[in-house]
């Protein structure tokens, strides 16, 4: 006789507290993951948004997973690009993070693509033995088209091409406020409940679970599962549930940022990359959106006052040709994370759960990755502890990988200012990073070296370490098992590929402008 299945004891209601990018992406992604296809009534999702609390959002850069995220939640890429003043991004360019033998700052790229192997081996071994080593463009320009695409300011596909297609991997620069509003509009159209009110109290039951939220105007709001998107305040996970905060101030010294939005020096010069330029006590980001530039100075308050940082930042911008009429906005950064991201019936998303300085534009990725992990471990009303434990381990692995990668940037700088000396000599290097740094004196980074949930794999670590001269004096044993003819064939193929892209692909600015013009033509009914 067939066993009768027990009725589902599922969670029927999810409450999201907080709007902004974290809140509205949570609503969109959970709505998609849980309700896109379902045999039974949908999970009811309610977002409670304060009418008073501003979002931190400034111009945002993203990583390649953003493209899949937009597809997964069903957004139109063309509309996204137009409405969020977005542009394409193929890599991060690092400037002045290290100096050459003459004291001049070097420049290198962290690209989004990984190179094809040569006869099953990493082509870096071939470049290391046969390549120019110190030539213009370095390793990345020799083995990938990304640098050439950026320098030529090419779009990733032809005008009129299909959404999300590209000859290389890409992500975006976007206006975070416009993006949150766009996702909000789309999500509300799909039936998400929206309450504009302030949470003034959080009630716990006798198990310590969140049982209800007390709203200033609406009174009691019962809770089954709550998603905390309240930013650095961490109203529920931190304040109500008391989950400890684990700072990373012993690994990463920057704790302040100045941010400002500026007009382009030349609107038609639109590089498809983020630029990170090192200054005396930190680094400056430059994100070229379609309509403006988002820029800011991430620095350590132990080495610069806000006034000193402001003067240094403005001098840097004016040296690049920018006219700074607006006073930069100061932001206190709480770098670290809650020890657990899922506690009882609360999951934190975004800044409420953790924040790593924005050197590699990981904020939106950690939001989406955490939401995917939560959906994959979605509980019933019993809130299984093993599920929560597995989820928390996975989120911890993701953060550890990001921290390792960012610490590595500082650890391998050779700048001599007091901040930079402290950033490499007075920090606690994560054990996982130190183990790999020791290993990578003898072999190039490989998949075997980076385990668990991760964003930055071996190609990312390799692109940065190689450019910084980590392998200059290393003779790899595998160099005796490669052939120069294979390398020459690879170089010829890469040269041909770059020429093909340069001949046929439109300029980045022209592509995005045509996208807007086509939208206007469609509205007017003009072909």
Question: Explain this structure to me?
Answer:
With 527 residues, this protein is α+β, with helices and mostly antiparallel strands. 36% of the residues lie in helices and 20% in strands. The protein is built from 16 helices and 22 strands. The chain has helices at 20-35, 65-72, 77-83, 123-130, 138-143, 146-151, 176-189, 235-240, 306-319, 363-376, 385-411, 418-425, 431-439, 458-467, 484-504, 508-524, and strands at residues 13-17, 44-49, 59-61, 87-89, 91-99, 105-111, 171-175, 193-196, 199-204, 210-215, 219-222, 225-228, 245-247, 256-262, 274-279, 282-288, 293-299, 329-332, 336-338, 342-343, 346-348, 354-355. The strands form 5 sheets. The chain has a 7-stranded mixed sheet, sandwiched between helices. The protein has a 6-stranded mixed sheet with strand order 8-2-1-12-21-20. Strands 3-7-4 form a 3-stranded antiparallel sheet. Helix 1 packs parallel to helix 7 (176-189). The longest helix is centred in the C-terminal third of the chain and has 27 residues, at 385-411. It is globular and about 70 Å long. Residues 1-7 have low confidence and may be disordered.
């Amino acid at each position: 006789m067939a066993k009768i299945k027990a009725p589902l004891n599922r969670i029927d209601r999810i409450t999201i507290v907080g709007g902004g990018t974290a809140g509205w992406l949570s609503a969109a992604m959970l709505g998609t993951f849980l309700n896109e296809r379902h045999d039974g009534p949908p999970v009811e999702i309610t977002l409670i948004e304060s009418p008073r609390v501003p979002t931190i959002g400034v111009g945002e850069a993203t990583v390649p997973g953003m493209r899949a995220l937009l597809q997964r939640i069903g957004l139109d890429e063309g509309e996204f690009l137009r409405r969020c003043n977005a542009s394409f991004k193929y890599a991060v360019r690092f400037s002045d993070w290290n100096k050459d033998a003459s004291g001049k700052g070097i420049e290198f790229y962290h690209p989004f693509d990984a190179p094809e192997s040569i006869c099953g081996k990493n082509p870096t071994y071939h470049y290391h033995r046969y390549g120019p080593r110190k030539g213009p463009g370095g390793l990345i320009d020799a083995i990938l088209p990304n640098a050439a695409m950026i320098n030529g300011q090419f779009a990733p596909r032809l005008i009129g091409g299909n959404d999300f297609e590209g000859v290389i991997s890409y992500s975006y620069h976007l206006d975070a406020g416009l993006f949150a509003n766009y996702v909000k509009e789309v999500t509300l159209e799909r039936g998400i409940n929206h309450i504009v009110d302030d949470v003034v109290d959080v009630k716990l039951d006798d198990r310590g679970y969140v049982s209800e939220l007390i709203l200033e105007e609406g009174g009691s709001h019962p809770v089954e599962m709550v998603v905390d998107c309240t930013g650095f305040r961490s109203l529920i996970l931190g304040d109500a549930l008391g989950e400890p905060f684990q700072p990373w101030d012993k690994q990463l010294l920057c704790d302040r940022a100045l941010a400002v939005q500026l007009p382009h020096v030349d609107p038609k010069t639109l590089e498809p990359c983020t630029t990170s330029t090192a200054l005396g006590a930190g680094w400056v980001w430059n994100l070229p959106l379609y309509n403006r530039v988002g820029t800011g100075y991430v620095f350590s308050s132990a080495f610069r006052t806000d006034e000193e940082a402001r003067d240094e930042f403005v001098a840097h911008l004016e040296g690049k040709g920018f006219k700074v009429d607006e006073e930069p906005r100061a932001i206190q950064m709480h770098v670290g994370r809650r020890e657990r991201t899922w506690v009882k019936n609360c999951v934190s998303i975004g800044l409420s759960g953790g924040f790593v300085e924005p050197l590699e534009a990981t904020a939106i990725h950690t939001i989406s990755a955490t939401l995917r992990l939560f959906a994959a471990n979605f509980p019933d009303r019993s809130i299984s502890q093993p599920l929560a434990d597995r989820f928390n381990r996975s989120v911890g692995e993701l953060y550890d990988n990001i921290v390792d990668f960012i610490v590595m940037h500082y650890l391998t700088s050779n700048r001599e200012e007091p901040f930079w000396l402290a950033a490499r000599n007075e920090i606690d290097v994560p054990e996982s990073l130190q183990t790999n740094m020791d290993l990578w004196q003898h072999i190039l980074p490989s998949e075997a070296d980076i385990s668990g949930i991760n964003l930055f794999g071996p190609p990312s670590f390799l692109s940065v370490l190689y450019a910084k001269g980590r392998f200059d004096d290393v003779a790899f044993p595998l160099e005796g098992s490669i052939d120069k003819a294979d390398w020459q064939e690879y170089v010829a193929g890469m040269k041909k590929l770059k020429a093909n892209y340069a001949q046929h692909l439109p300029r980045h600015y022209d592509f995005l402008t045509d996208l807007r013009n086509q939208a206007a033509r469609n509205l007017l009914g003009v072909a």
